[in-house]
Design goal:
Layout (H helix, E strand, L loop, with lengths): L19 E6 L4 H12 L3 E7 L6 H5 L4 E4 L3 H13 L3 E4 L6 H12 L5 E4 L5 H14 L4 E8 L9 H16 L19 E3 L2 E7 L5 E9 L2 E9 L6 H10 L5 E4 L8
Parallel strand pairs: 1-2, 1-3, 3-4, 4-5, 5-11, 6-8
Antiparallel strand pairs: 6-9, 7-8, 9-10
Helix pairs in contact: 1-7, 3-4, 5-6
């Protein structure tokens, strides 16, 4: 895969001038429409294409977009990112459903596109990113850890990307603390009431009308419990992170998974 279709005035690896030309994929969805408004309101960004599911994504390339924000769905997000790389555009991605195989394809594509950056963020809310970081720090001190993630019922995947990213952070913290498996004496659970197990951590997914995106990270030790909770009540809470990603992605060539790497965490 090559980047021969890169806009002529933006060679790979060069700083992206202001205003940054931005295209939004998934522009008619809840997150996408919020991103469109946020980009339009930013003085240093220029919205050049707002692309819905029925639109031709080539509009972004033709408009000279330098950064593509992908807020689509798991079924199409990988193809969108590979297309963006081939077109010579940086990508900031909020769609979930990524696995190691898909991430590997993106890394391989980026090897042929030096200077291009792709950010895949399980969560763009600054508070959610901090909660994950705090969880990794706390994990080494507590014998027990579980995650409850709560979202609106229109979310298509479970557990959430945020919960999986948090579980991975907890697993790293437990390894640093030389902790063994989380204690759990359950022997019978035919209905799966103990939830999924991600990186050795039980994750419970709640889907309720009225919710947006919420996470509780529970730690237990003898005689105490620590709860770290983050709540997004409106999708506007994700926009500072989205805009940070757009502004910084050109300065982070290659694949980055997690907004924390752009926050110095």
């Amino acid at each position: 895969m090559t980047s021969s279709n890169r806009p002529a005035d933006t060679p790979a690896g060069a700083p992206v001038p202001s205003p940054i030309r931005v295209a939004v994929l998934g522009a008619r969805g809840r997150m996408g429409s919020a991103a469109v408004r946020a980009v339009e309101a930013a003085d240093d960004l220029e919205l050049v294409a707002a692309i819905g599911s029925d639109d031709d994504r080539e509009t972004a390339r033709e408009a000279g977009a330098q950064v593509v924000i992908d807020l689509t769905v798991p079924a199409v997000t990988k193809d969108n990112v590979l297309w963006a790389i081939d077109a010579g555009m940086h990508a900031v991605v909020g769609a979930t459903g990524w696995d190691e195989s898909s991430l590997g394809e993106v890394r391989d594509a980026l090897e042929g596109a030096p200077g291009l950056g792709v950010l895949i963020a399980p969560n763009f809310a600054i508070g959610a990113v901090l909660a994950m970081r705090f969880a990794e720090t706390a994990a080494r001190f507590y014998e027990s850890a579980e995650i409850v993630e709560l979202h609106h019922p229109d979310k298509v995947d479970a557990p959430s990307g945020t919960a999986k990213h948090t579980a991975a952070a907890i697993a790293r913290g437990r390894a640093e603390g030389d902790l063994g498996p989380v204690p759990d004496a359950t022997q019978k659970d035919p209905d799966g009431s103990r939830g999924a197990v991600v990186d050795g951590v039980h994750v419970h997914a709640v889907r309720l009308r009225g919710l947006v995106a919420h996470e509780e990270i529970l730690f237990g030790g003898t005689g105490e419990q620590l709860t770290i909770r983050h709540d997004s009540f409106d999708r506007v809470s994700f926009m500072p992170g989205v805009l940070l990603g757009v502004r910084e992605v050109a300065s982070h060539p290659g694949l980055t998974v997690g907004l924390e790497h752009y926050l110095g965490l």
